[in-house]
Amino acid sequence: MIWQRIRPFLFITVGSFLYSIAVNMFFVSNRLAQGGVTGISLLLHYLFNTPVGLLIILMNIPIFILGLVVLGRGFLILSAYGMLATSILIDLTSSWSVHPFQNVILAPLYGGIIAGAGIGLIFRVGGTSGGGDIIARVLQRKFRNIDLGKFLFGIDFTIIAISGYVVGIEKAMLTIVAVYVSSRVVDLLLSGLQKQRSVIIISGKPQEITAEIQRKLVRGVTMLRSMGGYSKREGEVLLVVVQLYEMDKVRQIIREIDDRAFILALETKEVHGEGFSFPSPARSHIES
What does the angle CA 54 – CA 60 – CA 63 come to, to the nearest 5 degrees? Predict the structure, then answer.
C-alpha cells in the first residue's frame, strides 16, 4: 500500500533527473532548442543567461492556474510535482556540462534518448512536466474534434521554429531530430518492451486450431460468433494474443490444419493478464 503511494513520486523523481541530464549535458552544451516551456526557457537562457529551471517554474504558474480551473485539482498534483522536480534538478545540475560534440548528430540522438526515458517514466505514472502538456489538454477541452497529439505537435513546432532565429536553422533542425527520438523512446516505455500481436483467425476448422494453439503454445483462445457477409453462414472467429516471437509458430499451426484459413495479425501495444503482465503457471515449462 505504501509502495503504491510513493511509486509515482519515485518514478517522477528519477525521470526528472534523467531529463535534467539531457537538458544540461546535451541540449544546453550543444546549444540546442526544445519544445514547450522548456524550449522557451532555453531560448531566454541563451539570450540573457537566465536560470532554465527557475524560468520553467515562473512560466508554469499561470499555466497551472488555468489548468486548475479547466482540468481540476486531481490531474495537477502529479504534474505540479513533475514540473517542480524537473525545474529544480535542471538548475541543480546546470554545472554538468560537456564540450560541444564535433559530430553534431550525437547530441540530439543521445539527448533525445535520455530525455525520452525521463519523460516516459513521468508519463508512465500519470504525471507531466507541465507547460505544453497542460495547454494542449486545455485546448482539447475547447476543440474536442482535434487530437491531443496535434496540439502538442503544434505548440512544439511553433517554439522550435522561433528558436531558429536564436540558435540558427541547423540547430533548430537538429532539435527536431531530438524531439522525434524522444517521442519514440516515450512510446517504447509507455507500450512496454515486449511486442504482442492480436491474431484473428477465420477458418472452417476452429475447434482443431484452438486445440493445437492451447496444446503447443498454452495460450487462451476466444471463440467469437460470426456470420459470413456473402454466404450468410454462421461460424466462429478465433481471437488469440501472442508474443511477437510466437507468430511464426501460430502460422505453422494454422497452415498445418487449414491452409485456406484467413489470418489477421494486429499490433497490440499493451496487454495485461496471465502469461503477459505476470507469469502463467501453465506456461512454466515453455518460459523456463
Answer: 170
Q: Which three cell numbers stand for residue 207?
A: 475447434
Whole-angstrom distance, CA of residue 206 vs CA of residue 193: 31
Question: What's the CA gap between 157 and 150, in Å, rounded?
Answer: 10
DSSP string, 270-281: ---SBTTTB--G
Residue 85 has phi, psi (to 5 degrees) of -60, -45
The answer to whether 209 and 258 have CB atoms below 8 angstroms apart is yes
Half-sphere exposure of 27 (CA within 13 A, CB side): 36
Beta bridge partners, 239, equal 200, 222
SS3 content of the chain, % helix, strand, coil (to 5): 65, 10, 25
CA distance 199 to 196: 10
> pLDDT averaged over consecutive 10-residue blocks of the chain (288 residues)?
81 94 94 90 93 93 85 74 92 88 91 92 79 75 68 82 91 91 82 77 93 91 85 87 85 93 86 68 62
pTM recorded for the entire structure: 0.74
Rounded distance between C-alpha atoms, residue 81 and residue 76, angstroms: 8
**Four-way CATH pick for 196-287: 3.30.70.120, 3.40.50.300, 3.40.50.2300, 3.30.870.10:** 3.30.70.120
Rg of the Cα atoms in the chain = 24
Going from N- to C-terminal start, the domains of the chain cover 2-191, 196-287
CA distance 79 to 130: 6
Closest CA relative to residue 51, chosen from 79, 85, 88, 84: 88
